[in-house]
């Protein structure tokens, strides 16, 4: 992607586009501000067992994913902005509740609410980006920037959470609530400045109700295949955050804390430094070719992990480097792929359905742990290698599967 072209494309971004991009950064940052440290807070303050903490966090995450599937359709039917306003207002209430909760049940309720703004904001905000940016290349750049900012938010969120939640200052969560209120004001100003000229849907077609939408989704075999492949991809990537660490810990690898820190830094650095150079290299490639390339690199990373001696320090860094290159290619292009698959009047519904793929992240620690218990680390990574290859095969089948005329054609 040429620098001059990028600058010209950025000039096409309206103020509302920037609010959506920065809003996604903020929502993700606040989500990760809470999530990594809640288990510590629940244990230290409320003396919950590991099982009780795990049940609360897992249930909240799964419900949030399923809720996002439903709210995507609501955004198409009743308007993107209504759902965005609900997201930020729930954020204000949730983080205020975290600041003032003085009982276990009120705190648990606040924890659950704190996961909701992410699922409410995600699909409608991506749909607004599509509404605002009619050119495919502009939308593609916006979705790549969205993924970049989400990663930055995921990295910075825990740092703020460390200060706000773990230093005994529960009241500090109120600052996040105030920030959500600021996001609400920015959204209101941008919405009004458009004088309601932005169309809530880009087509004259009437968005279907939820059950009719399920009927449409059921018939869109190609899209369902893409969702299945994405879920498998997410499941494999999640092993690097959970099962890999378990494997290294059980093997009592020397200097484990240092190794884990280096793996996290390697992953973040590759995403930040390589995402846009890779986009430049692949600028003339079809989305499908990019997905095949990223998937093939993912397979290589899993094979390297299966072959790497458990105590080979440098080898694990190389493995995560290769895994992160695959992530930089796949994750942002998955969003672009979904955008091109979705009909204009069902953008939020399709992005909401795509959120179901996050169940791959939710299921990964459990299923990965089972494989580690009954097998070993190399067995786990052989399994994930096969799963990665299966995802590539499903992408290929989806590409060759005809789509119903009521949905948009697959764009390459």
TrEMBL record:
Regions crossing the membrane: 12-33, 53-71, 83-98, 141-160, 172-190, 221-237, 257-279, 313-336, 348-372, 378-398
Q: Any idea what this protein is called?
A: MFS transporter
The record's Pfam families line, in alphabetical order, gives:
MFS_1
Q: Which InterPro entries match?
A: MFS (IPR011701), MFS_dom (IPR020846), MFS_trans_sf (IPR036259), MFS_Transporters (IPR050171)
Gene3D superfamilies (UniProt xref): MFS general substrate transporter like domains
**Organism field:** Pseudoalteromonas citrea
Q: Which SUPFAM superfamilies match?
A: MFS general substrate transporter
A GO cellular component annotation here is:
plasma membrane
State the Gene Ontology terms under molecular function. transmembrane transporter activity
How far does the signal peptide extend, from start to end residue?
A: none
